[in-house]
Amino acid sequence: MTRLKRDLTKAILACVLLPLATPGFTAGAEEAAATCRELAGPATAEAPVSKQAVSDYFRALRSARAACERAVIGAAPDPEALFNVAVLMQADGEHALALETFELAAEAGVAAARTKIGDYFNFGTGGVKPDIDRAMSEYRAASDAGDLPALATLAMMSGLGRGTSRDFRQMVSLLEQSASEGYHFAQLRLAAIYMQPNNIPRSLAEELGLPDVVKAAEMLEKASAQGNEDAARALQTLYSEDGPVTDPAQRAALIRRSAQGGDAAAINALGFLYERGEGVEYDPQQAASLYVQALETGKVSVNEIRGTVSGRAVQWDRETALVFQRILQERGLYDGALDAKIGPGTLGAARGLAP
Fold first, then answer.
1. Helix axes 264-276, 229-239, angle to 10 degrees
2. Residue 288 exposed, middle or buried by CB count within 10 Å (0-12, 13-18, 19+)
3. Best CA proximity match to 238, nearest among 226, 223, 172
4. What is the C-alpha separation between 316 and 343, in angstroms, rounded?
5. DSSP collapsed to 3 states, the chain
6. What is the reported pLDDT for 69?
7. Phi and psi at residue 312, to the nearest 5°
8. CA 93 to CA 121: how far, in whole Å?
9. pTM for this structure?
10. Are the C-beta atoms of residues 168 and 200 closer than 8 Å to each other?
11. For residue 260, what pLDDT is reported?
């Protein structure tokens, strides 16, 4: 962005936003910038982990809007406030001004802004003419500055051969870098490759020792722990009898490893194995205790405990049901009959286990 264009964009921002700044946020740019950061959180180009996360993110942005707008008016606009204002403009369909505002944020050092710019030129968002070379340049600059979504995007571009030569080894390597730094989207994509490497050359899959269900589970656990709903669903499929691991003992070993790492879905699934004696020795006490433990994480609801057989819910094992009711009774949550009938009364009491 040239200096003339930069100054022009700042002037346009001032003209557009100054009338919108509420009296409560006109005290000072520094105070407004602090309020913007506090309410909106850090600038990020990450894919959302869930629909609820999207809703929460934009709710926070809207609550910060007045402060962020005040913080970008003047000769030295706050970089993260610029980013947040650009995201709001983008959501409002004001793409031309959003793109220019992202460029200001990028020049001020916000790496996530470069990823957003890359997306504009990659996908031609909002009528912007696609420019794959510009997109790749922005993604590389963002990645060099430590932006994990940009790194993951470069990985996917390598796999597609878009804007660069097609290189599956590079795709896996970049995804592993992004995943190791904690980006849930990269972890999810990597898990899919580890589990079913059909879309990479067979020679590379053999070199990497794929498929590897354990490595896939590790990635899914990490993404699920961050709230990624797709990863959580994939884990449930992985743990089920209809999943890719057909040997009961191997599936039990996989689930036990994940459960020992604290994964709530695995704790629940392990309980179901003990209830049915599948791949492990039948143990109703252990089964019920694991169901309680899973519920106590708050990540498994009463409607999600246990599991299914051939996609259908099955009746509770009588001894497991009795132990489950007894534990709830001992916790002071259940005062009904110990009749091994797990109905609304028992499940309602079990909701009290959640933190």
1. 20
2. buried
3. 223
4. 10
5. CCHHHHHHHHHHHHHHHHHHCCHHHCCCHHHHHHHHHHHHCCCCCCCCCCHHHHHHHHHHHHHHHHHHHHHCCCCCCCHHHHHHHHHHHHHCCCHHHHHHHHHHHHHCCCHHHHHHHHHHHHHCHHHCCCCHHHHHHHHHHHHHCCCHHHHHHHHHHHHHCCCCCCCHHHHHHHHHHHHHCCCHHHHHHHHHHHHCHHHCCHHHHHHCCCCCHHHHHHHHHHHHHCCCHHHHHHHHHHHCCCCCCCCHHHHHHHHHHHHHCCCHHHHHHHHHHHHHCCCCCCCHHHHHHHHHHHHHCCCCCCCCCCCEECCEECCCCHHHHHHHHHHHHHCCCCCCCCCCCCCHHHHHHHHHHCC
6. 94
7. -125, 145
8. 16
9. 0.84
10. yes
11. 94
Cβ count near 20 (within 10 Å): 12
Is 312:292 a contact under the CB 8 Å cutoff? no
Read off the amino acid at residue 92.
D
- Token pair 């990659």 is found at 122
**By the 8 A CB rule, do 17 and 69 touch?**
yes
Encoding tokens for residue 301? 């609801």
Close Cβ partners of 188 (under 8 Å, ≥ 6 residues apart): 219, 220, 223, 228, 230, 231, 234
- CA–CA dist 228, 338 (Å, integer): 38
Residue 178: how many CA atoms within 13 Å on its side-chain side? 31
Structure tokens at 265: 């879905």
Other CB atoms within 10 Å distance of the CB of residue 144:
12
**pLDDT mean values, one per 10 residues, the chain (355 residues):** 54 52 58 96 97 97 96 92 97 96 97 98 96 98 98 98 98 98 98 96 97 95 94 90 88 94 94 97 98 96 92 94 98 97 97 96
Residue 72, Cβ neighbours under 10 Å: how many? 29
Report yes or no: 152 and 175 within 8 Å, Cβ to Cβ.
Answer: yes
Q: Is the distance from CB of 270 to CB of 256 less than 8 angstroms?
A: yes
